[in-house]
Amino acid sequence: MTDSVTDRVTNSVPKSVPDSVPDSAAEDDAVLTRTEGRAGRLTLNRPRALNALTHPMATRIAEALTAWERDPAVRTVVIDGAGERGLCAGGDIRMIHRDVTSGGGAASRAFWRDEYTLNARIARYPKPYVALMDGIVMGGGVGISAHGSVRIVTERSRVAMPETTIGFVPDVGGTHLLSRAPGELGTHLALTGAAVGAADALRCGLADHVVPSGLLPALTRDLAAEPVADVLPRYAVEAPAGTLDGQREWIDHCYAADTVEEIVDRLMATGEPAAKETAQTLLTKSPTALKATLAAVRRARALGSLERVMEQEYRVSCAALSRPDFVEGIRAQVIDKDRRPRWAPATLAEVTDAEVARFFAPPADGDLRLTEALTEDLTEAE
Q1: Is the Cβ–Cβ distance between 238 and 193 less than 8 Å?
Q2: Is residue 174 in some structural domain?
Q3: 134 is an active site residue
Q4: Which residue, of 107, 140, 300, 303, has the greatest Cβ tally within 10 A?
Q5: Residue 228 and residue 296 in one domain
Q6: pLDDT tens per residue across all 382 residues of the chain
């Protein structure tokens, strides 16, 4: 880092949106939308819930993107999160737990339809979409940031798709992103849910640039006045060293196995302490979620477009609603917080191929059809 950059880190002001914004604020305040010069600004505004994403929030973001796409005065979109902890810790899984246990999951399916549609739209948004991925960026937070055209991480970034910990499978386009990471890095991150820092996020294709967190207010101020291509070179720095490159040999060897059981066996047999620790971590996850996740990532590699992968993810997510591990995982992690999930089945050996295949069957209320919608949009644009 140059001396001038160091000076700017020291002298920068804190984020403009304080931690004191109440999480009980009306849904209209859960996403702050405004224009500043040439920039449309989106701020997730539930800091006490680590900006967990809800259905109304996804709707609000989509509405703002529609308005700004048509507004010639808005040349760039910038999204960030209120508070000091991070952009977004994911979808509101407490809401999903309530919906599944009392409403059968209908509200969750409706949320995912709109959320995944939003994720796909972000990936094809015609104006620069700048995601400030500072702090914690997980699950649904990845969906509203890592599909953007300009993805900025900082020295504080912790990026993850931790779904297997709650008996779920990476969604919001996560299997698309991870399936395209070098070697088997994406498989490793998908199964373990491990969080990565700035350098490894760049290495895995989850981010594009590193900017010191203290410079983000100045960066956003300049984006309101100048094009992204003119602003970024003044703030971007080299990423510090990551950890994944030094682990590639055993990661690529172990995760190339055909089954989760064989992956665990290879991890245990490598002699690498980090690999053995990873095997032990995998054995704490939902066996069903692990097998469904491996299948989802492998299938995503062959599907091609983000839209096709997200159509698959919608099937998998809907199937998870009817499986016991999803509700149990949320209970153990965020409801009772005992961190002692009782997975059913409890072992990898008990999860059959037929059970995994059911995750990829069409849901009872129909598929999400993003590919058809994209084809129609492209036809209209011609």
Answers
A1: no
A2: no
A3: no
A4: 140
A5: no
A6: 433 333 333 333 222 222 333 344 456 699 999 999 999 999 999 999 999 999 999 999 999 999 999 999 999 999 999 999 999 999 999 999 999 999 899 999 999 999 999 999 999 999 999 999 999 999 999 999 999 999 999 999 999 999 999 999 999 999 999 999 999 999 999 999 999 999 999 999 999 999 999 999 999 999 999 999 999 999 999 988 899 999 999 999 999 999 999 999 999 999 999 999 999 999 999 999 999 999 999 999 999 899 999 999 999 999 999 999 999 999 999 999 999 999 999 999 999 999 999 999 999 999 999 987 665 554 555 5
DSSP symbols for 194-260: --B-HHHHHHTTS-SEE--GGGHHHHHHHHTTS-HHHHHHHH-BPPPP-SSGGGHHHHHHHHTSSSH
Q: How many CB atoms lie within 10 A of CB 176?
A: 29
Same domain, 100 and 14: yes
Model's pTM, two decimal places?
Answer: 0.90
Considering the candidates 91, 143, 173, 214, report the single residue annotated as catalytic.
Answer: 91
Give me the catalytic one of 99, 155, 171, 325. Answer: 171
Cβ count near 67 (within 10 Å): 13
CATH code for position 61: 3.90.226.10
Please count the structural domains in the chain. Answer: 2
Active site residue 92: no
**Could you tell me if 256 and 280 lie in one domain?**
yes
Considering the domain architecture, whether residues 237 and 319 belong to the same structural domain is answered as: no
| 173 part of a folded domain | no
Same domain, 116 and 231: yes
Q: For residue 91, what are the contacts with CB-CB under 8 A and spacing of at least 6? A: 52, 53, 54, 111, 115, 139, 140, 172
Residue 90: active-site member: no
Residue 199 falls inside a structural domain? no
Q: Which residue of the set 80, 99, 163, 184 is catalytic?
A: 163
Is 114 inside any structural domain? yes
Please tell me whether residues 273 and 223 are part of one structural domain.
Answer: no
In b/e form, how buried is each residue of 281-290, taking b as 16+ CB within 10 angstroms?
A: bbeebbbbbb
The one catalytic residue in 86, 90, 140, 197 is 140
Q: Is the domain of 218 the same as that of 316?
A: no
140 catalytic per annotation: yes
